[in-house]
């Protein structure tokens, strides 16, 4: 199915097909260009060309539901049965899309070789994959219709069919499905038709779980309505994930996803501990959808990683980090998180080899340098940067005010990215010191001195480390030498001169730590600087005291240096939001509260943390505050007397399946 474009939209010429494809392979940031390529390939009638394009597209957007759905239509209409089976194994099995799995079942139904038993097994398998999805109600209903004929050769076979049908009903009626009321009516008719006396026990036994699912359904629908998910009936329309713009509208969109994911984690169905696996499946399904729709938002990937790790799914968590970095190679949050995983794994070994962590950082620096080279060229040329005009849904949004519609932001962006690069290098030096010792730290710093993009903060960090960690006079003298070297290079930088001069004078004085006492009073800063294990233990205590703090906030604090918070600036988009708002951070309508912890530049012992339940987040003190629905109060619902029909709510339990 081809798509049309608005009459005024620029469309590449067919002669540029190959060039455009090559460009998109390197940088896939062009949903409209992908759509044009697909339209052109399909119009050509060249089956091989269409298939190759879909393969390339799914390399860039793995498991994208709309792409898989369109490709499936093409394959089932043009390919051999063997090729179709290969397609299903490669692209359908990993998909979280109900529509795609439904198409798979429809295909099998029309295959003469698919018998009754195989079809039943297929339904069982498919419902284990996507049966917790609200839109899977039609699959449950189809399966029930398949099982309903009660004809049997003997009593044992008849009872087996009854048990199978009852099991499917009991599974379906504990899920907030879009057709749950109809399924309940069918279940009542089924039980009463078998035995009215037995139905008086079986129906009330399932009723509380059914009512809870019915209560949760409108809440779930409210959350899902704002997530930009492709409707089940409209997967044939190509929908590709957009890149972040970090406008207020974009941040609001991210906030809605975060609120939904936190709601699912909160167990709104009140699933018992004995059915913990069901909760895992539900939350896992939510995160699978989230990282497909929000592919270029590291914050969502980090949430998925953190949740999987928190429930003991460490292999899945590690794979999420790897996939997230493949999609977002310039993500500070995902790089730091992955580096920590690798570092902790090596620390458990007798023979430690941190080469993989070094390689990870080197790849990361390569990505950042390439971006800095591009920004340097743009800044030198004085090219203007336009403000973003599309949100996460790919729709037009008005340009923020105040400010002209087009401004030159390249130099400001370049300066900010240099600071973030320096932040990454400082954290690399920290890793080298805590993992391999002080000599490794010095080696990393010496190597960084040759990098044109390293800022003054790296000199300060190196000098402070020498002063703190090497109590010998030689170490203190080396700290002074580093400050002196930095002074020669950054003598016109006011920030460096102020920071260096104040500390340098105290070091030159008597070399006694007491004279610099106020600088070292911040315990958490020391923990973040030198000992990952101690820092993580400290944060576990902080998490118990401040449960409303999102984990990514603590990760950001751990890798922050002075006012350089690369995670907030790049992965959460707060720096971009500040620029678009003309220097004042924009205030989007949705997110959580991120109160600023005592960090390298915030050691006020009287500073308070927000431990209340107002559900607002201030990310690193930058004023980006977003409100989300209250999670704790939203997770549990008390049944009304009409709903309970005399049942004691405290005795409700999910029936065994």
From TrEMBL:
Localization in the cell: Nucleus; Cytoplasm
GO biological process: co-transcriptional mRNA 3'-end processing, cleavage and polyadenylation pathway
Segments of this protein annotated with the region Disordered: 383-405, 591-657
Pfam family, one: Suf
Protein name: mRNA 3'-end-processing protein RNA14
A GO molecular-function descriptor: mRNA binding
UniProt organism field: Mycena rosella
Bias type Basic and acidic residues, positions: 642-657
Superkingdom: Eukaryota
Positions with biased composition (Low complexity): 604-620
Any one Gene Ontology cellular component term annotated for this protein: cytoplasm
């Amino acid at each position: 199915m081809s798509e049309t474009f608005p009459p005024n939209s620029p469309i590449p010429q067919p002669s540029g097909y190959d060039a455009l494809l090559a460009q998109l392979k390197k940088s896939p940031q062009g949903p409209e260009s992908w759509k044009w390529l697909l339209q052109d390939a399909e119009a050509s009638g060249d089956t091989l060309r269409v298939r190759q394009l879909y393969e390339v597209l799914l390399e860039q957007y793995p498991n994208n539901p709309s792409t898989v759905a369109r490709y499936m239509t093409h394959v089932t209409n043009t390919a051999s049965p063997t090729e179709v089976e290969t397609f299903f194994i490669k692209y359908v099995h990993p998909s979280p899309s109900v529509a795609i799995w439904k198409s798979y079942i429809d295909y099998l139904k029309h295959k003469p070789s698919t018998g009754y038993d195989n079809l039943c097994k297929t339904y069982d398998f498919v419902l284990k994959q996507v049966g917790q999805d609200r839109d899977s109600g039609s699959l449950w209903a189809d399966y029930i219709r398949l099982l309903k004929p009660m004809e049997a050769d003997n009593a044992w076979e008849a009872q087996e069919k009854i048990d199978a049908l009852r099991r499917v009903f009991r599974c379906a009626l504990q899920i907030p499905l879009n057709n749950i009321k109809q399924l309940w009516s069918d279940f009542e008719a089924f039980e009463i038709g078998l035995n009215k006396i037995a139905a008086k026990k079986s129906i009330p036994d399932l009723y509380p779980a059914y009512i809870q699912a019915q209560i949760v359904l409108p809440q779930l629908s409210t959350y899902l309505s704002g997530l930009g998910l492709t409707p089940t009936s409209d997967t044939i329309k190509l929908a590709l994930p957009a890149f972040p713009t970090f406008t207020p509208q974009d941040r609001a969109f991210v906030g809605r996803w975060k609120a939904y994911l936190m709601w699912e984690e909160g167990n709104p169905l009140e699933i018992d501990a004995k059915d913990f696996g069901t909760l895992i499946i539900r939350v896992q399904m939510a995160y699978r959808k989230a990282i497909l729709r929000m592919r270029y938002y590291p914050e969502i990937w980090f949430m998925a990683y953190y949740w999987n790790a928190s429930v003991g799914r460490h292999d899945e968590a590690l794979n999420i980090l790897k996939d997230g970095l493949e999609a977002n190679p310039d993500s500070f949050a995902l790089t730091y998180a992955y580096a920590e995983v690798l570092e902790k794994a090596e620390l458990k070994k007798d023979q430690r080899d941190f080469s993989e962590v070094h390689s990870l950082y080197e790849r990361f620096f390569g990505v950042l340098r390439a971006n800095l080279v591009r920004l340097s060229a743009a800044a030198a040329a004085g090219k203007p940067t336009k403000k973003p005009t599309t949100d996460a849904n790919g729709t037009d949004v008005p340009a923020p005010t105040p400010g002209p519609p087009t401004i030159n932001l390249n130099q400001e962006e370049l300066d900010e990215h240099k600071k973030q690069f320096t932040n990454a290098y400082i954290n690399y030096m920290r890793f080298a010191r805590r993992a391999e010792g002080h000599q490794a730290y010095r080696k990393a710093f010496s190597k960084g001195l040759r990098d044109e993009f390293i800022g003054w903060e790296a000199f300060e960090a190196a000098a402070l480390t020498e002063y703190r960690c090497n109590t010998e006079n030689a170490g203190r003298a080396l700290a002074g030498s580093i400050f002196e070297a930095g002074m020669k290079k950054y003598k016109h930088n006011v920030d460096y001169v102020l920071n260096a001069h104040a500390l340098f004078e105290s070091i030159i004085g008597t070399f006694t730590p007491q004279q610099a006492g106020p600088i070292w009073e911040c315990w958490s800063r020391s923990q973040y600087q030198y000992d990952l294990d101690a820092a993580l233990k400290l944060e576990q205590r902080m998490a118990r005291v401040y449960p409303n703090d999102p984990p990514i906030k603590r990760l950001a604090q751990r890798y922050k240096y002075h006012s350089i918070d690369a995670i907030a600036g790049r992965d959460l988009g707060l720096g971009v939001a500040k620029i678009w708002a003309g220097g004042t951070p924009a205030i989007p309508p949705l997110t959580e509260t991120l109160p600023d912890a005592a960090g390298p530049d915030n050691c006020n012992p009287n500073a308070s943390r927000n431990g209340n339940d107002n559900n607002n987040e201030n990310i690193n003190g930058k004023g980006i505050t977003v409100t989300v629905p209250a999670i704790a109060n939203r997770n549990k619902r008390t049944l009304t007397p009409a709903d309970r029909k005399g049942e004691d709510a405290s005795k409700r339990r999910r029936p065994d399946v």
